Amino acid sequence: MAERPYIVGNWKMNGTRTMLSEARAIDRAAQRYMKVEVALAPPATLIHAVHKEAEQIGIGAQDCHPGEFGAHTGDVSAAMVADAGAKFVILGHSERRGGHGESNALIKQKIESALAAGLRIILCCGEDLATRDAGSAEDFVVEQLTASLPDIADAAERLTVAYEPIWAIGTGRTAGAGDIAAMHEAIRALLVKTYGKQQGGEVRILYGGSVNSDNAREILAIGEVGGALVGGASLTAENFLGIVVGASEAMES
Ligand code: PEP
CB burial class (10 A; 0-12, 13-18, 19+) of residue 242? Predict the structure, then answer.
């Protein structure tokens, strides 16, 4: 596992200001687990409010438009989420790829725009069940990443990759340890090929897909797993902190 596991909560389209108390509780408790890097990506409407509450945790956005500004009704740019207090942005989530038809090329443009705005990136990738069953999951994910990884020389320093098999998201199913290990190794090899041994070797690779306080420790102990991207279990401080504790324990074992 990475020196400091990165545990990121993705609130998706959940949360009004009543949920600020959960963010505050997560932030205060995270101060007891300094060996774990904890972050939250609330909906865009809450970025600024959560940012104002947070003393310890990192705050990010769940998406951004590739353009800087202009006639794009309903969209927000990377500079806007940065202005609201975001330090990173999740890009290429399967719910954006599937629900909004986002291509690898568009995701690459968004990444470039987010890097230009000074943000860190969590780039998501992952196969559907048919691809996994066909035995081509690793080829599919490597192709996804190859088409969207930024060419910018120092991009690796601000990049995190999240492997999230689509069939494991919100389903209660997790990928097997062997499959997670093999996929993370394939991703690592691609990162090293793209950014060189040193920089490509340091990019954190998260696992996401039904991570909870019961399975976190085991998943985080798998080689090359540098943390977790967490959806459903990040919505309450109690559940999310269980994962942070699991990460902290995995560090000590
Ligand atoms: C996600 O959507 O990024 C995710 C991992 O969701 P969940 O933890 O609910 O499976």
Answer: middle
**Ligand 1 neighbour 169 (Cβ under 6 A):** yes
Ligand 1 neighbourhood includes 131 CB (under 6 angstroms): no
Cα 61 to middle of ligand 1, angstroms: 15
Give the predicted TM-score (pTM) of the model: 0.97
**Is residue 6 a contact partner of residue 204, using CB atoms and an 8 Å limit?**
yes
Q: Which one from 51, 93, 95, 184 is the annotated catalytic residue?
A: 93
Active site residue 93: yes
Catalytic residue among 53, 102, 164, 224: 164
The rounded distance, in Å, linking the Cα atoms of 137 and 73 is: 36
pLDDT in tens, 30-79: 999 999 999 999 999 999 999 999 999 999 999 999 999 999 999 999 99
Instruction: List phi, psi (to 5°) of 146.
Output: -55, -40
Rg (CA), the chain: 17
Exposure string over 68-102, b if 16+ CB within 10 A, otherwise e: eeeeeeeebbbbbbbebbbbbbbbbbbbbbeeeeb
**What stretches of 166-223 adopt beta strand conformation (E)?**
204-208
Q: What is the pLDDT of residues 167-193, one digit of tens each?
A: 999 999 999 999 999 999 999 999 999
The response to whether residue 211 sits with its C-beta less than 6 Å from ligand 1 reads: yes
- The pLDDT, as a whole number, for residue 1 is 52
CA 171 – ligand 1 centroid, Å = 9
